[in-house]
Amino acid sequence: MPHVIRTPSARSRPAAPRRSSRASAVVGAAALAALLTVTGCSGHGSRGGGSDAGAGPSAPAGGGGRSGAPGSALRTLDSLAVKRQGTKDGYARDRFGSAWADTDGNGCGTRDDILKRDLRGTAYRDAKSCVVVSGNLPKDPYTGKSLRYQRGRSTVDIDHVVALSDAWQTGARQWPARKRVALANDPLNLIAVEASANRSKSDGDAADWLPPYAGYRCTYVARQVAVKKKYGLWVTRAEKDAMAKVLNSCPRQALPGGGTPTEAPARFTAK
């Protein structure tokens, strides 16, 4: 028999891995989904883009895997539900009760309680009154300026950190009246600020407006997160992204607490 020299056959060599067209499509789709997650593409171009239902956020608020320190505002932001902005239909200030109601029962209106807390060198109408007639705001949170408060002038306002209209559009529309009254008078949601800055804010959320004084933004956004968490309000996708952008610069910013209960006493009503 003739001597035959055999070369390695295709059968004897290790076969190159083969991927079916179906498997390739699955892998490709997964890669695209991962890319969209990283780049933040959601398919929604509107300000209120996000889930239509009450599903929570799908990624850490801080981005890049950061979720903030335990007890921080950044960590808490991740626990807020993300939804589209609700309707403003039916909103009116009196849906949150009469202004500056004495919900804590200390004999003073809420406005004077906040002036007493935030101002320095306060003077009162008389020795038995809690009505603040003057005082100083050493450093306005919104502008960083020193302000003089004089009753009857508009230099200093009391701001709802989470605006009542914004609250109405992110859950409060469905609340019982006493919960709305509680939010409107909760010291956690109230601060003394420069009047014109407050009015430029109007009812904007963090996606629309932030304090001109950058040194207060972490504290401001942390307080908004605390209020929304306490009362079960949701955020829009644009709002959450704006909050996360601020809080990423201060990932250990503590979440403020305190304030009054989330339901006003039974003697309070709202339309």
Descriptive notes:
- This protein has 271 residues and is an alpha+beta fold.
- The longest helix is centred in the N-terminal third of the chain and has 19 residues.
- It has a 3-stranded antiparallel β-sheet with strand order 1-2-3, covered by helices on one side.
What are the salient characteristics of this protein?
single chain; disordered N terminus; globular; 5 strands; 271 residues; 3-stranded antiparallel sheet; 8 helices; two-stranded antiparallel ribbon; alpha+beta
Class based on secondary structure composition and strand pairing: alpha+beta
Beta-strand share of residues: 5-15%
Number of strands: 5
What value does the average pLDDT take?
A: 83
Shape: globular
First-last Cα distance = 108 Å
The largest beta-sheet arranges its strands as 1-2-3
- Counted by DSSP, the helix tally is 8
Largest sheet: 3 strands, antiparallel
Low-confidence stretches: 1-59
Q: What is the gyration radius calculated from CA atoms? A: 27 Å
Helix and strand element order: HHHEEEEHHEHHH
Structure summarized in a few sentences:
The protein has 271 residues and is of the alpha+beta class. Helix content is 30%, strand content 9%. Strands 1-2-3 form a three-stranded antiparallel β-sheet, covered by helices on one side. The protein has a two-stranded antiparallel ribbon with strand order 4-5.
Write the layout of secondary structure elements.
Layout: H1 21-39, H2 73-77, H3 110-118, E1 120-124, E2 132-137, E3 147-150, E4 156-160, H4 164-169, H5 177-184, E5 190-194, H6 195-201, H7 217-231, H8 237-247
Antiparallel strand pairs: 1-2, 2-3, 4-5
